[in-house]
């Protein structure tokens, strides 16, 4: 990716339920003019197939994501701090990936990209999805928060009267864009 002044975001999708959160985030980032580099884990590809009967890599391509990698593509740009991405978002984030990021077990491109964000002091947003949480999950989230990551649970609000799944995924995408300092107008700010 060339440096065009646009925000460059690594968006990682892992094998938690709610692949739609990641796809909606990709769509909204692109609509806002950001450049998106997506990485899908094997788990995410499997869950997308089970949840929506879709081929995740094809869905990302259809949305217009220009760079798409699998978790084994260790030679891809997000593996290195020298590639100047502004932020890494993991949405949805499985407890498996969350635990690996919290403990610096960089055995795939997603955990490596997250680790790069932490070591380079760039923004890292993880969107965990599990219920209930075990004490270990909560400890891992605390470790990540202490390391500088933002833990943004897949917990959409209901005060804005969502009428469909798309409204719920938009709520989470809006919170992510806002934390990336990217203007969004698809969810009204409270009080406006
Ligand atoms: C249909 C389905 C739904 C799943 N949902 C979740 C979930 O919500 N949260 C979670 O942490 N793991 C969930 N898992 C388990 C993960 O996919 C599994 O732990 C996998 O190893 C995660 O790998 P990854 O972190 O590399 O994507 C689910 C698995 C399947 C098949």
Q: Can you describe this structure?
A:
- This protein has 192 residues and is of the alpha/beta class.
- The chain has one domain (8-179): Flavin prenyltransferase-like (Rossmann fold).
- The chain has seven helices and six strands, in the order βαβααββααβαβα.
- The chain has a six-stranded parallel sheet with strand order 3-2-1-4-5-6, with helices on both faces.
- Helix 1 packs across helix 7 (165-179) and helix 4 (95-102) packs across helix 6.
- The longest helix has 15 residues, at 165-179.
- The radius of gyration is 15 Å and the shape is globular.
- The model has no long low-confidence stretch (mean pLDDT 95).
- Bound molecules: flavin mononucleotide (FMN).
- Residues 14-17, 41, 43-44, 46-47, 50, 94-97, 129-130 line the site of flavin mononucleotide.
CATH first level: which class? Alpha Beta
Number of strands: 6
Compute the number of helices. Answer: 7
Strand content: 15-25%
**Gyration radius over CA:** 15 Å
| Basic shape | globular
Largest β-sheet summary: 6 strands, parallel
Overall residue-averaged pLDDT value: 95
Helix content: 40-55%
Give the number of domains: 1
CATH superfamily: Flavin prenyltransferase-like
Structural class: alpha/beta
The CATH architecture can be named as 3-Layer(aba) Sandwich
| Separation of the first and last Cα atoms | 36 Å
Order of helices and strands: EHEHHEEHHEHEH
Low-pLDDT sequence parts: none
Can you list the ligands bound to this structure? flavin mononucleotide
